[in-house]
Hints:
Layout: E1 2-7, E2 10-12, E3 18-26, E4 30-39, E5 46-51, E6 57-59, E7 67-72, E8 77-82, E9 91-100, E10 108-111, E11 115-119
Amino acid sequence: QVQLVESGGGLVQPGGSLRLSCAASGSIFSIYAMGWYRQAPGKARELVAVITRGGNTNYADSVKGRFTISRDNAKNTVDLQMNSLKPEDTAVYYCNADIQRSRYGGPGNYWGQGTQVTVSS
């Protein structure tokens, strides 16, 4: 089994900051891309940021310059530093990863349970 567990969500005022963390555990041989998605009420889930094992990153235009994704390959973790938060960033944030569970076989795609981020005064 593989688990992705997020932490760090909460309520913050506009202009504030939050840091989300996600830890992968279980039967893991290698982790490829890791990323964060979000889903606001009534909207489709969307990509926020993704990082490859080598550290290459990609961000949604709406968060560029405000959010930073990082990972620790030794600890199987991925973080999302969110600064200058806006009310429109309010959503459930999900961790996502492509994980190979053994030396044999390809990677599977896994999701965390989600963590709520609310930006409001």
